[in-house]
Amino acid sequence: MAGGTWIPTSLPTRPGVYINFVQAAVAAITGGERGVVALSLSTYAGTAVEERYYEVETVADAEALFGVDNIGPITLAFQGGAASVLVYTLPDEAVTADYTAMRAGFDTQFFNVFVAHEYDVTEQAALKTWTIANRADGKQYALVIGGDATTDADPALGNARSLLNEDDYIVNVINGAVIGDTSYSSSEYAPFIAGLIAGTAINASITYATTTANDVTKRLSNAQTNAALAAGSLVLTNDGKRVKIEQGITTSGAKIRSIRARQAVIDDIQTTANESYIGKLPNDDDGRAALIASVTKYLETLADNGVLSDPVVALDPNNPSTGDKVFLAISYVEIDSMERIFMTINV
């Protein structure tokens, strides 16, 4: 499926939907598939074979495919809220070429969030490059990463990782979780965060969402928490009663809720246009009006559900829609969740 971003001086040649998402960014368009987490497994003992993609919808299916002792990341993703988990089976003792092949294969698979549940600095850099390149080509997903026990012990190291991986679509967890008597590094617990992101409605935030943990591996002070948020780090906080997500942000400081809404808008419009408009509608006044009406209806549906407000769709006055090209100017106001409440109490 062709798509992605475009620049006026070098327009793509393949048929497809190309979207320039500026921050300021006939079938009825329906909400696309949500809640799919993608990850790789390097250890498995069930019926699965190496270098294959498996879409898993239950823990029981995962146990049969990969063995009960090897499905920890998958179980965490389901606990977070994933509807399904897309798993790639790496070969034993995977090398760089195996990870490259894995990413290339995922290019043709659909998922909402990719999670790296093993800590590897080199692979994290490759995943960042891959994510940015895919976004330019029109493939939308979030990436969740973390650290190991050593980096989790020092929030400054986790914050440095956030700065190194700064991007609107990357989430970096900087402290681990304790479940029962078992401690998980931030990378090991990242599948839960990925599942939470994928499974949360696009009109809701994961800020203050409760986790499955009973404690964290590193409790951050107030000053450390503020520094982490300023760096774009995702922090797990034990407030004395529960372990929660301090704030749902990406490494750029953008709100995860906002990014997920952008992904939904791009995915849904692109999917429906590819299926119902491209090659089927004439590029005349009536055809363009039908396209505008459908996109407007879709955005109005999101507005009615509290995802955005004030949507406007029109032909782009700066780029004439001629020949086989149609340029739309789409704008709306992102709606945030209430995250900070200030009170003045007079006694």
TrEMBL record:
**Coiled coil ranges:** none
Q: Which residues form the Tail sheath protein subtilisin-like domain?
A: 94-251
Gene3D superfamilies registered for this protein in UniProt: 3.30.1370.220, 3.30.360.90, 3.40.50.11790
Q: InterPro entries, per this entry? A: Phage_sheath_subtilisin, Tail_sheath_C
A single Pfam family it belongs to is Phage_sheath_1C
Pinpoint the Tail sheath protein C-terminal domain residues. Answer: 254-347
The entry's family comment says:
Belongs to the myoviridae tail sheath protein family.
**Protein name, UniProt field:** Phage tail sheath protein
The root-end lineage is: Bacteria, Bacillati, Bacillota, Bacilli, Bacillales
